[in-house]
Design brief:
The chain is an alpha/beta fold. It is 52% helix and 11% strand. The chain folds into three domains: 295 residues, 2-enoyl-CoA Hydratase, Chain A, domain 1 (Alpha-Beta Complex); 178 residues, Rossmann fold, CATH 3.40.50.720; 209 residues, N-(1-d-carboxylethyl)-l-norvaline Dehydrogenase, domain 2. The strands form four sheets. Strands 13-12-11-14-15-16-17-18 form an eight-stranded mixed sheet, with helices on both faces. Strand 1 and strand 2 form a beta hairpin. Helix 6 crosses helix 7, helix 23 packs across helix 24 and helix 29 crosses helix 30. 48% of the residues are buried. 1,4-dihydronicotinamide adenine dinucleotide (NAI) binds next to helix 15.
């Protein structure tokens, strides 16, 4: 089942409903050889989606085909060169409200695909481009599959990422085709594979080499004619059996199977920490489907899909999916008139922690990088930082050594501005000092082309101030990566007072070129993410002051779904950095409570956090452990109140919510969705909760107001519900969907 489309497309779709009626998605063409082509091409859409309308049309088409005596073999292929079928319609999944309705939807899809399977002649899916979710389930219902090697050919079942399971037969047909272990690899992770890997796994019977000249009709017809001959058909079927034999030993006995299922369950629990029900239900569907008829297996699958589809986690994940789809199309400005400029050569100032990481990412993405520092040793360190990231990818077999070498050769180093005149964009990542940055930007301006974009990676300084000494300050923009650069998906694009639309549009497009998710943020202290994290980390320290233990505080947030708690996060960021940011925010917002004394104590004790080997935790051993000396250090402030996990979570979540709502009031972001995106991709806020604002919407804004008032009574004004929250609660509105 599952996977594509968004709200915008939904509106578009409803507008084109009439044209869909007149313009069919399917065409049938019969060749003299008796081989027919059923071509799917949903008009007006970039990708083919199995919406209800498309499925109804396919159903009618299959009824016709069941009657045809002149068809000897059928090939199902797409009329779109880089998309086979991208899955079911996400909007339809979003709208399902009850388990029964969900199960019925699955049954309809299953019955349709079963009709393909029961056609009285060989049916071949000819795959080029994305073949995911319902697309792969359709292909699995065919008797054979061939796939073309193509940059867009991606095959898999990503349903678990939307909080559901493959409900059009995927959990039943895939294990029967390729064995349980291989099927679980795809079903439980949502991972997509290319054509070659699909061939190795036994998902496709034949892999066609890359061909830049278009579609594969001729080769597909040749394949169909071949499988019309019994011995050729058996040869392909035998090949599948040989592949299946590899997993037969483990899977053919119940002991081996149980062991495998138990391992998979443990792994799923480890990665989901029990917050995502879909992988476990998918596992159940596969397990219960073993040794029973396909029909019975499909019934179980439909019922389990129904149980998932109406859950809050599923709706949250779908909302997150739609939000990222929206952002994928967002240019960064309303009604953009400017086109993004092409970026190939990038200058980089500063080869430090961030510079080294940024150089690696740029080179990995095929850009030419000119990295400058003021010191040869620093430059050498920058190269070795970039190399380390590449090397890790090679060690984990994510990259070949040759690709790493090619990447490293794209980075050149310099102590002066030679070749900066060729750069389309320069990223500045030098020390966090306004005067130094201003001087460097002034100097830089004379070394680059008139049109070069000047981006600063500052994490706390004002972009308008940094650009104030530059003659053409409309090309100055904030481009805030998060650390570690290769892993953190978010980039905050900060718009200064003078930044032009063209600069913003180019910065947004450039972030996407790097595979990142950009959000455009107003130039304001802490931008978005650090502004919200500041009070969160401070509240963690205040909880410690009040008597909660380090473990209790961090564990509560991990159990809430965060990757780590606030004190561990402070250790990761660096206590020195956290201390500095806390004071910057304090200066910017003098009415807010002062930073916790604990931050001062830890800072004055010279603790740096993880990078210095000790902070709240001790590092160096295999596992970090809480440093008991911290309790000695803070004993004069340490109170002895007791807190439940819920108390800790409430203080930490609602202090973030308050700041997030203030950011909405001050229009720090262009759209509420950007708050949720920023927190999910910049801090790891749990995706299954759909984002902080959505979490508040799900709780109910009335309830949020009530909890915050309670917290304000106990801990002070900082928890008083902000104006916008009160207004929305009053009007029974939500924060996210406005
Ligand atoms: P760092 O101290 O590791 O590196 C700074 C580098 O800049 C040093 O190698 C230094 O020699 C070099 N440098 C100083 N003046 C220079 C100049 N005039 N021209 C060229 N190079 C010069 O600093 P880090 O942590 O990499 O931070 C850099 C920037 O990135 C800062 O603005 C910081 O706020 C920002 N940032 C840092 C993050 C972090 O987690 N470290 C996260 C996000 C942003």
């Amino acid at each position: 089942m599952a996977a594509t489309d968004n709200e915008e497309a939904a509106t578009k779709k409803s507008k084109t409903k009439t044209s869909e009626k007149t313009e069919p998605a399917f065409t049938l063409e019969l060749k003299a050889s008796g081989v027919a082509f059923l071509v799917i091409d949903v008009k007006g859409e970039k990708v083919n989606i199995l919406s209800s309308l498309v499925m109804q049309e396919l159903d009618a088409m299959l009824d016709q085909l069941h009657q045809r005596k002149d068809v000897k073999a059928l090939i199902i292929l797409s009329g779109k060169p880089d998309n086979f079928i991208a899955g079911a319609d996400v909007n339809e999944i979003r709208n399902v409200v009850s388990p029964t309705e969900g199960a019925e939807k699955a049954q309809l899809g299953q019955a349709l695909l079963q009709k393909i399977n029961e056609l009285p002649f060989p049916v071949i899916a000819a795959i080029q481009g994305a073949c995911v979710g319902g697309g792969l389930e359709l292909a699995l219902a065919c008797h054979f599959r061939i796939a073309r090697v193509h940059p867009k050919t991606r095959i898999g079942l990503p349903e678990v990422k939307l909080g559901i399971l493959p409900g059009f037969g995927g959990t039943q047909r895939l294990p029967r085709l390729v064995g349980i272990k291989r099927a679980l690899e795809l079903i439980l992770t949502g991972k997509l594979v290319d054509a070659e890997k699909a061939g190795q796994m036994g998902i496709v019977d034949k892999v066609l080499p890359i061909d830049h000249h278009g579609f594969m009709k001729a080769e597909a017809e040749e394949f169909a004619v071949a499988v019309l001959q019994k011995f050729k058909r058996h040869a392909y079927e035998n090949k599948r059996n040989v592949k299946r034999l590899q997993s037969f030993l483990l899977e053919s006995n119940s002991y081996g199977r149980n062991f495998m299922f138990e391992q998979a369950r443990k792994q799923a629990l480890k990665t989901t920490r029990g917050h995502y029900p879909a992988p476990l239900k998918a596992l159940e569907a596969v397990r219960r489907g073993i040794g029973i008829s396909l029909q019975k297996g499909l019934e179980i699958e439909a019922q389990l899909l129904g149980e998932l589809i109406a859950t809050e986690v599923c709706k949250n994940l779908i909302s997150l999916y739609s939000l990222t789809e929206e952002l994928r199309k967002d240019t960064g400005v309303e009604k953009a008139k400017s086109e993004p400029r092409e970026i190939k050569n990038v200058g980089l100032l500063g080869a430090g922690v961030m510079g080294g990481g940024i150089a690696q990412l740029l080179a990995f993405k095929g850009l030419n990088v000119r990295m400058k520092d003021i010191d040869q040793n620093a430059l050498d360190l920058g190269f070795s930082r970039a190399e380390q990231v590449f090397q890790k990818a090679v060690d984990r077999r994510k990259l070949t050594k040759a690709k790493m070498e090619r990447g490293m050769s794209q980075i050149t180093g310099t102590l002066d501005y030679r070749n900066f005149d060729n750069c389309h964009l320069v990223v500045e990542a030098i020390v966090e000092n306004l005067e130094v940055k201003q001087a460097v930007f002034q100097e830089l301006e004379d070394e680059v082309d008139d049109k070069t974009i000047l981006a600063s990676n500052t994490s706390s300084l004002s972009i308008s101030d940094i650009g104030s000494k530059v003659k053409k300050s409309e090309r100055v923009v904030g481009f805030h990566f998060f650390n570690p650069v290769h892993r953190m998906p978010l980039v905050e694009i900060i718009r200064g007072d003078k930044t032009s639309d063209e600069t913003v549009v180019t910065a947004v497009a450039f972030a996407k070129q790097l595979g990142k998710t950009p959000i455009v943020v107003k130039n304001s202290p802490g931008f978005l993410v650090n502004r919200i994290l500041g009070p969160y980390i401070n509240e963690g320290a205040l909880l410690l002051e009040d008597g909660a233990t380090i473990e209790e505080i961090d564990r509560a947030m991990v159990n809430f779904g965060m990757p780590m708690g606030p004190l561990q996060l402070l250790d990761e960021v660096g206590i020195d950095v956290g201390h500095k940011v806390a004071h910057i925010l304090q200066e910017a917002f003098p009415d807010r409570p002062a930073p916790s004394q604990i931050l001062e104590i830890m800072h004055h004790d010279g603790r740096l956090g993880k990078k210095g080997g000790k902070g709240f935790y001790l590092y160096g051993g295999k596992k970090s452990t809480v440093d008991p000396d911290v309790y000695q250090l803070i004993k004069h402030v340490n109170q002895s109140s007791k807190f439940s996990e819920q108390d800790v979570q409430n203080r930490l979540v609602f202090i973030m919510l308050k700041e997030a709502v203030l950011c909405l009031e001050e229009k720090i972001v262009r759209h509420p969705r950007d708050v949720d995106t920023g927190l999910i991709f910049g801090t790891g806020f749990p995706p299954f909760r759909g984002g902080l604002l959505r979490h508040a919407d799900n709780l109910g804004l009335d309830k949020c107001v009530e909890i915050m008032r309670e917290l304000a009574k106990l801990y002070g004004e900082r928890f008083e519900p902000p104006k916008l929250l009160l207004e929305r609660a009053e009007k029974k509105e939500t924060l996210r969907e406005m």
